[in-house]
Design goal:
Its cofactor is pyridoxal 5'-phosphate. Keywords: Aminotransferase, Pyridoxal phosphate, Transferase. This protein is 38% helix and 17% strand. By secondary structure, the chain is an alpha/beta fold. The protein folds into 2 domains: 161 residues, Aspartate Aminotransferase, domain 1 (Alpha-Beta Complex), CATH 3.90.1150.10; 245 residues, Type I PLP-dependent aspartate aminotransferase-like (Major domain) (Aspartate Aminotransferase, domain 2), CATH 3.40.640.10. The strands form 3 sheets. The chain has a 7-stranded mixed beta sheet with strand order 4-10-9-8-7-5-6, with helices on both faces. The chain has a 4-stranded mixed beta sheet with strand order 1-2-3-13. It has a 4-stranded antiparallel beta sheet with strand order 11-12-15-14, covered by helices on one side. Helix 3 runs antiparallel to helix 10 and helix 4 packs across helix 10. It is globular, with a radius of gyration of 21 Å. It starts with a helix and ends with a helix. The model has no long low-confidence stretch (mean pLDDT 97).
């Protein structure tokens, strides 16, 4: 009996915890670059990239070869027991890639959530303070501390009770929804006045381009004000580049376009082309604030993932993928603006590099999550994998591999245009 998506979904429902969601009722059989095939042989263009994990595409040959070579040597020792060069080499590379004209050191872990947890630990140790300021719409992970930093309860922490305290919420600047840069800074000042003194705040954690929150881009002017505020009060500025990093925005890290450098930068997702590695890179003196044994993990900096990440960095250099990211972004935003000119339900097209989104509204100017869901579902039926996001679920985001051809990208955009045209009366 051949496997089908339906039969596998039945097994999934019987065996997998309900809390693990699934956007598309599809089971993948194989994948190459920007194309995936399901177990029934159907082909899809991938505009999701494993949620921003596949900037270098599925199974990039250079990444696959690097992992194969590493597998033939060893797959695990635990770096804290027996060290290995790929871990050190990757840290050396990241120390040069992360923005900031100061001495840096790097910690490797396994997931984005771990990276954020450790960034907070490092900031607390470096400052002797405990408080954290995060932003509305922010997403930082599914562990307990990161759930408290997320700017959205449902579905991430719904039904789980109150999260750890000491986290305060500022407004993320978003002119589309009436929050100016000055409003956002004023919201931090209100926290200082109403909730916690600056001397009690260890870190301000921000995504320079929000991921799950809707692809809103912080302005360089706002980041400059935020940097000045942190410097004034001795607060650690943490840039969460888990989704925006590894070349998605046209620079290897989005903060390179913000005019200021964070003290700590977190990374994960596309850094290793589909293999699990994440980490924190920042000021050497801050990174060294925790004594030996206070950082690490059994699988942290796995040698296979380190080999993959080193290959990803080489691919970016050899294939000029940063320039490709900017070119793709212009192409995708141009097509979305053409669609928006004909469909007023698209209220905004935005992005940085190839981290692009459009936001949908009803005729009454209310967020239209229903339309976003319909576009995602119809696109799937037409052979395109899409994702939605945003605090209201009304944003369509595009995370196509940077290695996709122009023909593949245009074919995907044609499907998006066809979806909006078909749903014009809905």
């Amino acid at each position: 009996m051949s496997k089908t998506n339906d039969s596998l979904m039945q097994r999934r429902h019987a065996a997998v915890a309900r809390g693990v969601s699934q956007i598309h009722p599809i089971f993948v059989q194989r994948a190459e670059n920007a194309t995936v095939w399901d177990v029934e042989g159907r082909q899809y263009i991938d505009f999701a990239g494993g949620i921003a994990v596949l900037n270098t595409g599925h199974r990039h040959p250079k990444v696959m070869e690097a992992v194969k070579r590493q597998m033939e040597q060893f797959t695990h020792t635990c770096f804290q027991v027996l060290a290995y060069e790929p871990y050190v080499e990757l840290c050396e590379k990241l120390n040069t890639l992360v923005p900031g004209d100061f001495a840096k050191k790097t910690l490797l872990v396994t997931t984005g959530s771990e990276a954020l947890e450790n960034a907070v630990k490092i900031a607390r140790a470096a400052t002797g303070r405990a408080g954290v300021i995060a932003f509305t719409g922010g997403y930082h992970g599914r562990t307990m501390m990161t759930l408290s930093m997320n700017g959205k309860v449902s579905p991430y922490s719904a039904g789980m009770g109150l999260m750890p305290g000491g986290v305060y919420r500022a407004q993320f600047p978003c002119p589309l929804h009436g929050v100016s840069d000055d409003d956002a800074i004023a919201s931090i000042e209100r926290i200082f006045k109403n909730d916690a003194e600056p001397r009690d705040i260890a870190a301000i954690v921000i995504e320079p381009v929000q991921g799950e929150g809707g692809f809103y881009v912080a302005s360089p002017a706002f980041m400059k004000k935020l940097r000045e505020l942190c410097d004034l009060h001795g607060i650690v500025l943490v840039a969460d580049e888990v989704q925006s990093g590894a070349g998605r925005t046209g620079t290897f890290f989005a903060m390179e376009q913000m005019g200021v450098a964070p003290d700590l930068t977190t990374f994960a997702k596309s850094i290793a082309g589909g293999f699990p590695v994440a980490g924190v890179c920042g000021r050497a003196e801050m990174m060294d604030a925790i004594a030996p044994g206070g950082l690490g993990g059994t699988y942290a900096g796995n040698p296979l993932a380190c080999a993959a990440a080193l290959a990803v960095i080489e691919v970016f250099e050899e294939e000029n993928l940063l320039a490709r990211s900017s070119t793709l972004g212009e192409m995708i935003m141009g097509r979305l603006r053409d669609i928006a000119a004909q469909d007023k339900r698209i209220g905004d097209v935005r992005g940085l590099g190839a981290m692009v989104a459009c936001e949908l509204f009803t005729s009454e100017c209310r967020p239209d999550a229903e339309l976003a869901a319909k576009v995602v579902a119809l696109a799937r039926d037409k052979g395109l994998v899409l994702l939605s996001c945003g605090q209201y679920g009304n944003v369509i985001r595009i995370l196509v591999p940077l290695t996709a051809s122009d023909m593949e990208v245009q074919a995907g955009m044609d499907i998006i245009a066809a979806c909006f045209a078909e749903l014009a009366g809905s």
